[in-house]
Design goal:
By secondary structure, the chain is of the alpha/beta class. It contains 8 helices and 7 strands, in the order βαβαβαβαβαβαααβ. The protein has one domain: Rossmann fold, CATH 3.40.50. Strands 3-2-1-4-5-6-7 form a 7-stranded parallel β-sheet, sandwiched between helices.
Length: 258
């Protein structure tokens, strides 16, 4: 088997939360191009349908499931629904986001809890439910989309719920990777820097100073494009990454170098 064959995902089925837009969409399309069928989970039927159509145009199947995984009951429901539709070989816990910029001292506890559920608890629940069948089959790939804010604090922005959740997600990745390595299930994290997603485009409109400050700190001089993330996700989802687990891979144009 040559090196490119090891990157193929033919016969595999991947679930991507937040899979209809932004980084999730780019990851889903990349996995489809590598040969995987997809289960897309998102809140908006229209965007799910659009991404599913793009996957179908690549010759692969896509099941769209509407759910808000920041709500634990909905997260559990959609995971069970996905399992009933067929096996899940690859799980990409992508759903997340900062969403608000509220100083910590002014943030209501309920808001804090909701955002922790979005960025951390959803990944925990999906892993709890979709991981055990992988352990039984002795093959699986779990990819958690963390952030460079797992390691560094965002400038000119408030709340710190995001930094807290993403740092916890990296350590969750490492801990589960250690537990599940003997069973052929790898668990890795991708830590993106700034990418031109819809969320960051909104931040650029509403808080341009945040995005401009961020851009000035990137050695490459620009934010990444969502499709820049796809090849890394394919690698982590494939047999090419067989011997990698518990890693937190930074992709940020050099932002965290200084």
């Amino acid at each position: 088997m040559n090196v490119l064959d090891r990157l193929r995902l033919d016969g595999k089925r991947a679930l991507v939360t937040g899979g209809s837009r932004g980084l999730g969409r780019a990851i889903a399309l990349a996995l489809a191009e590598a040969g995987a069928d997809l289960v897309l989970v998102g809140r908006t039927p229209e965007s799910l349908a659009n991404t599913a159509a793009e996957i179908a145009a690549r010759g692969k199947q896509a099941l769209s499931l509407v759910a808000d995984v920041s709500l634990p009951d909905e997260c559990r429901r959609v995971c069970q629904q996905a399992l009933e539709s067929g096996p899940i070989d690859i799980l990409v816990n992508n759903a997340g986001g900062r969403r608000v910029s509220i100083p910590l001292e002014k943030m209501p506890l309920e808001t804090w809890k909701q955002l922790i559920d979005l960025n951390l608890t959803s990944a925990v629940l999906c892993t709890q439910i979709l991981g055990p069948p992988m352990l039984e089959r002795r093959w699986g790939r779990i990819i958690n989309i963390a952030s460079i804010n797992s390691f560094v604090v965002g400038r000119k922005i408030h709340g710190r719920h995001y930094e807290t959740a993403k740092a916890a997600l990296v350590q969750f990745t490492r801990a589960v990777a250690a537990d599940w390595a003997p069973f052929g299930v790898t668990v890795n994290a991708i830590c993106p820097g700034g990418f031109w997603t819809e969320a960051n485009e909104r931040w650029a409109r509403e808080h341009p100073e945040v995005i401009e400050t961020f851009r000035q700190q990137i050695p490459m001089g620009e934010l990444g494009q969502p499709e820049d993330l796809g090849p890394l996700a394919v690698y982590l989802a494939s047999d090419a990454s067989r011997y990698m687990t518990g890693a937190a891979l930074v992709i940020d144009g050099g932002y965290t170098l200084w």
